[in-house]
C-alpha cells in the first residue's frame, strides 16, 4: 500500500515539474483597406489537440490607429502553438456578423 502511494506521489510530482511555463507576444497594426481598423476584437490563443482545451492567452481591442499588443503565458507539457485571431467586419457591407481572420 505504501509503495503505491509513494509511486503515485512521485508520478504527480514528476508530471507537474514536466510542465513548462511558456510565453508569447504579438504586436501590430490592423488596416481595413488603407484606413486603421479601429476597435477590432483581437485574441491570442494556444491551440491544443486532444482532450486539452485551447487556452485563451490574452485578448483586447485595437486602438484608434489600429494598433494592438497582446502577451500571455501558459504551462504546457509540449511546445505551445500560438494563434492570433481578429474578429472584424472589414469590407463586408452585406453582412452584420463578425468574421474571424486567422493569419496563415
UniProtKB/TrEMBL annotation:
Residues 1-18 form the signal peptide. GO terms for cellular component: cell surface; extracellular region. It is found in: Secreted. It holds the Pfam family TTR-52. InterPro entries: Transthyretin-like (IPR001534), Transthyretin-like_sf (IPR038479). Keywords: Secreted, Signal. The keyword Plastid does not apply. Gene3D superfamilies: 2.60.40.3330. PANTHER family: TRANSTHYRETIN-LIKE FAMILY PROTEIN, TRANSTHYRETIN-LIKE FAMILY PROTEIN-RELATED. Belongs to the nematode transthyretin-like family. This is Transthyretin-like family protein. It comes from Wuchereria bancrofti.
Amino acid at each position: 500500500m505504501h509503495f503505491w502511494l509513494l509511486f503515485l506521489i512521485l508520478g504527480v510530482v514528476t508530471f507537474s515539474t514536466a510542465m513548462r511555463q511558456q510565453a508569447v507576444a504579438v504586436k501590430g497594426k490592423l488596416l481595413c483597406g488603407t484606413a486603421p481598423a479601429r476597435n477590432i476584437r483581437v485574441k491570442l490563443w494556444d491551440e491544443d489537440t486532444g482532450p486539452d482545451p485551447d487556452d485563451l492567452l490574452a485578448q483586447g481591442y485595437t486602438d484608434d490607429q489600429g494598433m494592438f499588443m497582446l502577451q500571455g503565458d501558459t504551462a504546457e507539457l509540449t511546445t505551445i502553438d500560438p494563434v492570433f485571431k481578429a474578429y472584424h467586419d472589414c469590407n463586408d457591407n452585406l453582412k452584420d456578423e463578425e468574421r474571424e481572420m486567422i493569419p496563415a
